[in-house]
Amino acid sequence: MYRLLSVRLWIVLLWCIVTIANLYIRPLFPIDETRYAAVAWEMWLRNDFLVPYLNAETYSHKPPLLFWLMQLSWWLFGINDWSLRLISPLFSLAALFLSGAVARSLWPDRERTEALTPLILLGLSFWAIYGTLTMFDMMLAFFALLGIYSLLKLIDSGLSLKYWLLLGLAIGGGVLSKGPVILLHILPVALLAPWWLKIPGFRWKHWYLGVIAAVLIGAMIALCWAIPAGIAGGEDYRKAIFLGQTSGRLVESFAHKLPWWWYLEILPLLLLPWLLLKPLWSGLRQLTSQDWGVRFCLAWAMPVFTAFCLISGKRLHYLLPLVPAMALILARAADQVTEPGRWERAHRVAMAIFGLLGILLILLPRLNEIYHWRAELSLISPLWGSLLVVCAIIFGISNAKTAQDSVLSVCVASLATLITVSGGFFDAQFERYDTKPAAQTIAALMDQNSDIAFYGSKYHGQYHFSGRLKQPITVVPDITDLYAWAGHHQSGYIIVIYKHSESLPESLISYHYPFKGQNIGLISCRTLLANPELKSILKP
Q: Poorest-confidence range of 2-6, 48-52, 215-219?
């Protein structure tokens, strides 16, 4: 099957299938995707491309590149929900091809490693999931990989000026994507060059001066936005973007929220499904630091991984820029195993597990009727599990004579698993994650000149883009202030969150819908003022 198409065409085909399925299966995911879309929407309404806003307040938590690209997609295709959701997948696709180019630079005499790297990267469940989410991390991963590629091309080209400029562009793009954290992903491997690059008489002075120059170029690119944005956004915003995204976040990161070994515990899960391929284990044992490509990947990944282990503020997606380094090591290990017959049945263990997962999806509604776990589990269509079972059987009985055949089979099955599990989940939970009906209800009330308040400590903008809202929602964190606000806006409505549907009688709620594990309701101010007993029920 591998020989039916070139590697590039396989990558594009599989990427298209996953991306289209993602657009069809799920809505904009709250609260992150809906929040970032809301920021871009407010910038669009204000015609302000310098300062991001969320609910009429400056938004300093993230740089503007993602918001700019969202607005560019609307400029090209009109205001819509789907084009902004292509941004992260497109960066993922670019990173897949770039990973192959990095493999070619590291191992120019190993064409199979170059071919295997993007397939392994695409098949990693962790990468595939975040490749469909409209967040900043896939952009950061791309620019980090672009910086890595620039370093390697500098070696090949004799420190060519154009690759120093490309490195500076990668740093600048990374800063505009997610802030100065891009330096953590590029500088350690650049500074450790004497360890991974053993070239007698290499011009190390020029190397380190070039690295400094590239950092300055990247800083200049970022400052072209930050300086005018800081002036336009005011003093608080200026302090937030120049200090809050650097030193302030580093200080908060050492609050010991998670133990240092947490990433080590979850690392095997991040490498699925490739850890199920037995020949890969054999190939990994054969790798040594004498291979300069292996040394490079270690110098790239290990210092950053160690830093993230020591910093207590941990999130899964922080590791996303390191995933290409893992894929390169796995591809090199797979290429190491060339003995005849080693790959023929290697993929069948993974196929068996995928098939069992498909059977579980088929049986889950029936099991739920017996054991009464959650009512929505009965809504899962058996079609999703059936598709996965068929995929596992087809690839399980196919002959995989080479590493490429085996890797492609597991990659396809891994992506099929992502699609079917997502399809089954949103069959049961779609309405709990779709903010559009509630947002449109709020928009209709605003069109009738009704003011809207949100009772809680923080509103994340989850209704602004979905409802195309043009007015802010007032955030009221205190119950006393809530009644005072209701007294001054008696024609208004209040968005409230409550755990159990029986907590609030339906006669008191103008509109309600389930949201994740809670319920969201709209209460009119007149109803709130007429029922003082609600003070004991409503929780911010």
A: 2-6
Over range 283-299, report the average pLDDT: 92
Task: Dump strand ranges (E) for 96-150.
Answer: none
pLDDT of residue 246: 52
Contacts of 441 (CB under 8 A, 6+ apart): 467, 511, 522
Enter the tokens of residue 285.
Answer: 């044992």
Residues pairing with 452 in the sheet:
493
Count of structural domains, the chain: 3
Domain assignment of residue 297, yes or no: yes
Distance CA 253, CA 261 (A): 15
pTM above 0.70, yes or no: yes
Residue 243: DSSP 8-state: I
The model's confidence at residue 255, banded by pLDDT at 50, 70 and 90, is very low
Alpha carbon distance 394, 397 (integer Å): 6
Q: Which domain holds residue 261?
A: 2-333
| Whether residues 415 and 397 fall in one domain | yes
275 & 165 share domain: yes
How far, in Å, CA of 234 to CA of 380, rounded?
50
CB atoms within 10 A of CB 426: 20
Statement to judge: residues 149 and 231 lie in one domain:
yes
* Nearest-angstrom CA–CA distance, 108 and 103: 8
| Phi, psi for 419 (deg, rounded to 5) | -65, -45
Q: Are 482 and 476 in contact (CB under 8 A)?
A: yes
